[in-house]
Amino acid sequence: MATKIRLQRGGRKGYAFYGIVIADVRAPRDGKFTEKIGTYNPNTNPATVDLNFDRALYWVETGAQPTDTVRNILKSEGVYMMKHLRGGVKKGAFDEATAQKKFDAWKENKLKGFEAIREKDAKTKKDAEKAELEAEKKMNEAIAKKVADKKAAAAVEKAEAEAAKHAEETEQQPEEAAPAAEAEAPVAEVETPAAETETPAEA
């Protein structure tokens, strides 16, 4: 029976999560499988792989054919590297201790690369948050300035209105005082001439 190492889709819509399974080549993609040897989550950076290394190596050495995606995953996890080193041990090129030492050195370099990626992502995220904070700060300052200008304009308008009202009251005061002055003015007495008495004509 031809055996494949393939991905079996899981997770929810918009968030795919895969199982790494051993299945018959004739089985449907998400159908029956022989063994599950790990999981693959492409939603993280770098992608998260949880792999049973020994079982994956066993199936690769027994001739199971991975899909292109699974092959890349197994290469990234060092399965093919270990297969190559074990082939060298079988040929007598070096012993198992040397093979393990080479594999550990390869794995350490790989982990350093992952750490560099994580640090870069963390820095990018931090810079983005800082830029967003600065933009928000500038926006708040602009809003505060706009509010302050509006209040200042309202204060000036109020002061001008009060000044105009005061000026109008000042203009009305002399007009109101004039009738009062006229009312208080003394009335001049008019002298009437004394009536002349006519003397009766002498008879």
Topology:
Blueprint: E1 3-12, E2 15-24, E3 35-41, E4 48-51, H1 53-61, E5 65-66, H2 68-77, H3 79-91, H4 96-184
Parallel strand pairs: 1-5
Antiparallel strand pairs: 1-2, 2-3, 3-4
Helix pairs in contact: 1-3, 3-4
Kindly describe this structure.
The protein has helices at residues 53-61, 68-77, 79-91, 96-184; strands spanning 3-12, 15-24, 35-41, 48-51, 65-66. It has 203 residues and is α+β, with helices and mostly antiparallel strands. It has four helices and five strands, in the order ββββαβααα. Helix content is 60%, strand content 16%. The longest helix is centred in the last third of the chain and has 89 residues, at 96-184. It has a five-stranded mixed sheet with strand order 4-3-2-1-5. The model has no long low-confidence stretch (mean pLDDT 82). Helix 1 (53-61) packs across helix 3 (79-91) and helix 3 (79-91) packs antiparallel against helix 4 (96-184). The relative contact order is 0.06. A hairpin with a 2-residue loop joins strand 1 (3-12) and strand 2.
Structural shape? elongated
Helix and strand string, N-terminal first?
EEEEHEHHH
Roughly what fraction of the amino acids lie in strands? Answer: 15-25%
> Which structural category fits the helices and strands?
alpha+beta
Report the end-to-end length measured between terminal Cα atoms.
183 Å
What does the radius of gyration come to? 51 Å
Pick out the low-confidence regions.
none
Helical run tally:
4
